[in-house]
Amino acid sequence: MKTVLIDEPFQIKVTDTEMPVPKEGEALLKVLYGGICGADVASYTGNQPFTTYPRIPGHEFSAQIVSIPDNDRGLKPGDIVTANPYFNCGECYSCRRGFVNCCTDNQTMGVQRDGAFLEYIVMPVERIYDGKGLSAKELALVEPFTISYHALHRAPVKPGDNVLVVGAGPIGLFALIAAKAQGASVYVADILQGRLEKALHFGADGVINSSENDIVAEAMRITSGNGFDVCVEACGQSVTFLACIDCAAFAANIILIGNGKRETTFLHSILLKKELNVFGSRNSFPKDFKAVIDLIASGSVNVLDMVSDIYPIERADEAFKALANNDGSLAKVLVNIGDR
């Protein structure tokens, strides 16, 4: 079967591997579409510290069930599904307390273990989610949506809250959608006008082009000098985290989704002075997958508008190169793995 393999940084190919054989409790899935995540791009460029090589990338995917054991989830051969790609140990302190999303020995597909960019995979039945009639392309977008959905439920977001999302990449846009679904008024900041136009398309109440305007001054203007009730950092940059602190109202919540790669230096007394609540967010819960599938199925948002391009599996190397050199014009890029 065709398999996308990263041999080492910047060395990616489509090769042949053996078909997997399901073990007890596992289903055999035919992969249909895979989404390329920032973590996959980091593996490709050698900037992902948790990746070892060679590695099959991919943890955002949709699939069709080929075979599956009898189960109480109503899943059967032929169903179009998606799956939870974060494998947890079940034994660490986090897992024992129910925080399986931040297992201390977490293994995410495509990073610490092989991913879904191949024609067939096996998955434990309990990790598979009914697609509820969604298309294979839509289901390939569920996992990145759950990242933002989970984050926006780390802190209470109430109807009427003023929310600022800093960063209008896919995760920031999904955070915008999640906040709007909770009844908030949402503004989005980014340095690229094209991304801000995408944010407006997805329902942003307003945008801030931070390459042309002072983000803090604009935040205070928008909120009549009060600051935002919730600030969401979706870039992973020091400057954007500091901007969130400055744009936040007193007693506000800051939610961190962006995975920072550099140290941030600041006087932490500002957190005390403003009594800010800072929430980290990692992965997502099974309930987040179910909630996001229901949200998309409700028809309230067209997630396919997030897709910038689709490449066939034979051209997967081109897809990775395009995202590695993304000028900001690309949002989600899918790879057609088995939808023939």
- Kindly, what is the distance between the CA atoms of the first and last residues, rounded to a whole number of angstroms? 14 Å
Residues in helices, as a percent range: 25-40%
The whole-number mean of residue pLDDT values reads 96
Going by CATH, the homologous superfamily of the largest domain would be Medium-chain alcohol dehydrogenases, catalytic domain
Poorly predicted runs of 5 or more residues: none
Overall 3D geometry? Answer: globular
* Portion in strands: 25-35%
* CATH class bucket of the largest domain: Alpha Beta
As a whole number of angstroms, the C-alpha radius of gyration is: 20 Å
Which structural class do the helices and strands define? alpha/beta
Overall number of strands = 17
Topology as H/E string? EEEHEEEHEEEHHEHEHEHEHEHEHEHE
CATH architecture of the largest domain: Alpha-Beta Complex
Textual characterization of the structure:
The protein is of the alpha/beta class. It folds into two domains: 2-144 and 284-336, Medium-chain alcohol dehydrogenases, catalytic domain (Quinone Oxidoreductase, Chain A, domain 1), CATH 3.90.180; 155-280, NAD(P)-binding Rossmann-like Domain (Rossmann fold). Helices cover 27% and strands 27% of the residues. It contains eleven helices and 17 strands. It has helices at 38-45, 93-96, 136-139, 142-152, 170-181, 193-201, 215-222, 238-247, 269-273, 286-297, 316-324; strands spanning 2-8, 11-16, 26-35, 60-67, 80-83, 86-87, 107-108, 120-124, 128-130, 162-166, 185-190, 206-209, 228-233, 248-256, 277-280, 307-312, 332-336. α9 (269-273) links the parallel β14 and β15 (277-280). α4 packs across α5 (170-181) and α4 (142-152) packs across α10 (286-297).
